[in-house]
């Protein structure tokens, strides 16, 4: 049994990806008695993936369809999925991801390929009440690994083997922000440098600052109002950019989640290097430049402003960069 859905809405699951960090085509593998739950999952996630198929479980189902999907969602005990796929695993960058979920949708457990689709699927299943049980080191520590940074920036990892060392640096708080290099130029890197390549060069970046505690609706309204003053819409947004000191701003994070956008943070030194034209009191008070303009410039592929800073209800400031 199978059902396919196509998605052209620009969601986080439909970005080009050469290294498998993002799942685009998934298969729900379920026993016949669990087909109703499988259909519920398919209906809930349909607009987030290019394809969702439902496969009825039999002993060789994983082997039969291995390599045809980015991620398998096993509606079954984790032991079954592990035993039936262990002999198929070869390379984490090529193998499909596997996430299991119980029939009551209590837990969503990435088994393999956490950074390559399984964590993403588990987070999507959270909208149905399942608790994502992340065991990848960076997520377990509450930190953003390099694969997650790539997804947030609508980019992909070029040299996958490097992520072992760079993710260790993430755990030690020693990686710092993503450095930007614009070409044409030749770059020589070692095996402890992860190279990210943008999936598109034509998107825009929504630089955002705020007072502490601004709510989700304020951010959504501010972004919409700012975009209305440009020729762009939400479908053109690559990601939301802000300062590291706003990394835990819950209203901003929830607004980005509602729009399926990644959030990229820049440290003070990076923002000072990309300071915008509008004066900001924060530089005098705390030594930070205006966050919205600086982060929009720092994040944009061309590092230029499309829209200078706009304030919404004295709570949220927005600038648009590209």
Could you give the count of β-strands?
Answer: 13
Q: How many strands, which pairing sense, and closed or not: the largest β-sheet?
A: 6 strands, mixed
- State the low-pLDDT regions, or none: 1-20
Q: Any guess at the CATH architecture of the largest domain?
A: 3-Layer(aba) Sandwich
What is the overall number of helices?
12
SSE order, as H and E?
EHEHEHEEHEHHEHEEHEHEHHHEE
Largest beta sheet: strand ordering? 2-1-3-4-5-6
CATH level 3 topology of the largest domain:
Rossmann fold
Overall mean pLDDT: 85
Please give the CATH class of the largest domain: Alpha Beta
Strand content: 15-25%
Alpha-carbon distance between the two ends: 44 Å
Name the descriptors.
single chain; about 325 residues; alpha/beta; Rossmann fold; Nucleotidyltransferase, domain 5; six-stranded mixed beta sheet; five-stranded mixed beta sheet; 12 helices; 13 strands; about 30% helix; disordered N terminus; cobalt-precorrin-5A acetaldehyde-lyase activity; Cobalt-precorrin 5A hydrolase; CbiG_N; GbiG_N_sf
Give me the secondary-structure topology.
Layout lengths: L24 E6 L4 H11 L5 E6 L4 H5 L5 E5 L2 H8 L11 E5 L5 E6 L5 H8 L5 E2 L4 H4 L5 H7 L2 E3 L5 H9 L24 E3 L5 E7 L5 H12 L9 E7 L6 H9 L3 E5 L1 H6 L7 H6 L4 H9 L5 E8 L3 E6 L1
Parallel strand pairs: 1-2, 1-3, 3-4, 5-6, 9-10, 10-11
Antiparallel strand pairs: 4-5, 7-8, 9-13, 12-13
Helix pairs in contact: 8-9
Organism: Natrialba swarupiae
InterPro entries: CbiG_hydrolase, CbiG_N, CobE/GbiG_C, CobE/GbiG_C_sf, GbiG_N_sf
Enzyme class: hydrolase
């Amino acid at each position: 049994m199978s059902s396919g859905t196509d998605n052209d809405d620009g969601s986080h699951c439909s970005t080009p990806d050469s290294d498998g960090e993002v799942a685009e085509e998934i298969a729900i593998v379920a026993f016949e008695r669990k087909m109703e739950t499988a259909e519920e999952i398919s209906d809930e996630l349909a607009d987030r993936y290019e394809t969702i198929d439902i496969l009825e479980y039999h002993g060789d189902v994983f082997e039969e369809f291995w390599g045809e999907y980015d991620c398998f969602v096993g509606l079954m005990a984790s032991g079954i999925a592990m035993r039936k796929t262990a002999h198929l695993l070869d390379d984490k960058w090529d193998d499909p991801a596997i996430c299991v979920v119980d029939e009551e949708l209590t837990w969503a457990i990435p088994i393999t390929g956490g950074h390559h689709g399984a964590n993403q699927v588990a987070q999507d299943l959270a909208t149905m009440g399942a608790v994502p049980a992340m065991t990848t080191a960076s997520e377990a520590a509450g930190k953003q690994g390099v694969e997650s940074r790539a997804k947030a920036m609508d980019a992909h990892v070029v040299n996958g083997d490097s992520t072992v060392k760079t993710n260790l640096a993430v755990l030690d708080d020693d990686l710092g922000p993503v450095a930007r290099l614009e070409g044409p130029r030749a770059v020589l890197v070692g095996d402890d440098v992860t190279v990210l390549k943008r999936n598109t060069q034509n998107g825009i970046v929504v630089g955002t600052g705020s007072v502490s505690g601004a709510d989700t609706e304020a951010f959504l309204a501010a972004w919409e109002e700012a975009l209305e003053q440009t020729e762009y819409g939400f479908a053109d947004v690559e990601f939301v950019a802000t300062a590291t000191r706003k990394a835990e701003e819950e209203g901003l994070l929830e607004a980005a989640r509602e729009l399926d956008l990644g959030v990229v943070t820049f440290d003070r030194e990076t923002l000072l290097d990309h300071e915008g034209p509008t004066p900001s009191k924060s530089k005098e008070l705390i030594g930070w430049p205006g966050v919205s303009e600086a982060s929009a410039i720092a994040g944009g592929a061309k590092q230029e402003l499309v829209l200078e800073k706009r304030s919404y209800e004295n709570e949220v400031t927005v600038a648009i960069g590209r």
